[in-house]
Amino acid sequence: MTRADDFERLRPLLFSIAYRILGSVSEAEDAVQETWLRYEASPTLPESVKSFLSTVVTRVSIDVLRSARVRREQYVGPWFPEPLLSDPYQDPERSAELADSVSMAALLLLERLSPLERAVFVLREVFAFSFAEISSAVGRSEAACHQLAVRARRHMSAGRPRFEADPREREELAGRFFDAFRDGDIDGLRTLLAADVVIVGDGGGKAPQVAMRFTGADNVAGALSMVIPAFLRGGGVVEPHQVNGGPGAVFRDREGRVVYTWALEIVDGRVQTIRAVLNPDKLQHLGPVADIWAVLRESRL
Q: What UniProt keywords apply to this chain's record, in alphabetical order (predicted)?
């Protein structure tokens, strides 16, 4: 088996590690490409290709995250991860951890961690790396990695919702939600919203301030009552889709171009949070991106 074959076999794992550390599809893809270049240039073959590549992609991702932190502090409005429709890495034994760790809510919690804490948490809690492997990957002692893992788990546990929905119940509720959306059934949508529901959008200063943030069932329902009829009138299409391991949707214009995405967080049988990504820079990996300003003009919003 050639180096290229070994690398392609492990590419899904490398991307999945990098995405969870970075929260960016484009940056994760760049980190994986840099890992390949370093592997290709290595004069000797490593004893364990998986350990070598995982170490390289982790260290590259940590370096990228440190510089990205500065940009995110200067970001206009709320910052969300780039939406991921399909995780290329699959492991039946860790399917729950993989799905949970890629959710918008989990990735936003990971933003609270230092780059080292984030990398250790991802390698240990998501991919079940040994502390010896993690120590090699991040360049810290095993004892230090244990401490980093403890701190990371504490931060992550403190921020999680208390009553998360069963996956099947979550999908069923999301199906009803998007059926009501496509039917323009505002009253039906209203019954599925938590009393303190929040809809918040990441436009990065490159999208209109429509639905940037509304709080409370009445306010969110009122905002949807304005947006939904106009969007559908303009030929918009709603495609329910797994977004970051949970229920969501891709919204397209009449030409099939991506307008924005939604990720739903469902807690205690109701939609608790709707996170919309409108920044066109964060949607390009999903295909051709619409001019959202033109879509709004056509919809008369």
A: Sigma factor, Transcription, Transcription regulation
